[in-house]
Specification:
Helix content: 25-40%
Distance between the termini: 55 Å
Order of helices and strands: EEEHEEHEHHEEEEEEEEH
Shape: elongated
Radius of gyration: 21 Å
Largest sheet: 7 strands, mixed, barrel
Strand order of the largest sheet: 6-13-10-11-8-7-14
CATH architecture of the largest domain: Beta Barrel
Structural class: alpha+beta
CATH superfamily of the largest domain: Cyclophilin-like
Low-confidence stretches: 1-11
Oligomer: single chain
CATH topology of the largest domain: Cyclophilin
Length: 245
């Protein structure tokens, strides 16, 4: 039996949660169809929220790539009681996390040289979206983003959420080498590449601010929960700030 969960609270963690029965005393919570850093963080948060129930009414929690297996004690709870208890526990934890994030986090301004010279996918993206390159740039820098997670590479911060008008799939063929400082978008997230690395995100500009420096403390200019704003700059300013094309 599949059950689409409709949460009482509008939380990102629960908005797409799906439940499937996995036996007489178990069910699986699916957070997404496939994993990414944000989904992994949601599963970790849910596991932590439920950990206090293990050894009492829950027998075990088994997190996976995009799901969480919950085994409950059917001597103490019926299925629907266990389901409701688990979902309510996750809902409350999600609301507390959202409240904490709304009050926390520094605002960080990152300068970006937006141009076809610095963003090789800018024109293709504009054509695909039936927008001008100026409109693409405006939509990107007018938004404030949250640092959802840090992963993939040291200093690579996943920022969301992107304006839905800019949402774009990853490139069919990833680049072998994306330059350091490249500002990119994929799906409804954006990021700045901290170093030269392979990558399949759409490149729309360049940022001269280093995203990772092992010799500095802290080594990154941002952390999870911070608020990020991008600010357009000229090519001359980009070069003056240490940027390289």
């Amino acid at each position: 039996m599949n059950t689409l969960v409709t949460p009482q609270a509008s939380t990102q963690m629960l908005s797409h949660l799906r439940l499937k029965v996995a036996g007489e005393q178990a069910f699986i919570l699916y957070f997404a169809e496939q994993t990414d850093a944000q989904v992994a963080a949601q599963i970790q948060a849910a596991t932590q929220a439920l950990s206090g129930l293990v050894g009492n009414v829950l027998i075990d929690l088994v997190p996976s790539y995009a799901s969480l297996l919950v085994v409950f004690d059917d001597n103490q709870l019926e299925f629907y009681q266990a389901r409701n208890l688990v979902l309510e526990s996750i809902r409350q934890a999600a609301m507390q996390e959202e409240d904490a994030q709304a009050q926390a986090g520094n605002q960080i301004i990152l300068p970006v040289y937006y141009d076809v010279e610095s963003g090789p996918d800018l024109e293709d993206l504009a054509r695909a979206k039936d927008l001008t390159t100026a409109e693409i740039i405006a939509l990107h820098h007018q938004q404030e983003y949250r640092v959802y997670a840090i992963g993939f590479a040291p200093g690579f911060a996943y920022l969301g959420e992107l304006d839905e008008r800019l949402a774009a799939p990853r490139l069919a063929t990833p680049r072998k080498a994306v330059p350091k400082g490249a500002v990119a978008i994929a799906d409804r997230q954006t990021a700045v590449y901290p170093s030269v690395s392979p990558g399949g995100w759409n490149l729309i500009g360049m940022c001269p601010v280093p995203m990772f420096d092992v010799n500095k403390t802290p080594s990154m200019p941002m952390t999870t929960g911070d608020r990020i704003k991008f600010e357009p700059i000229s090519k001359a300013d980009f070069i003056a700030m240490g940027g390289e094309l």
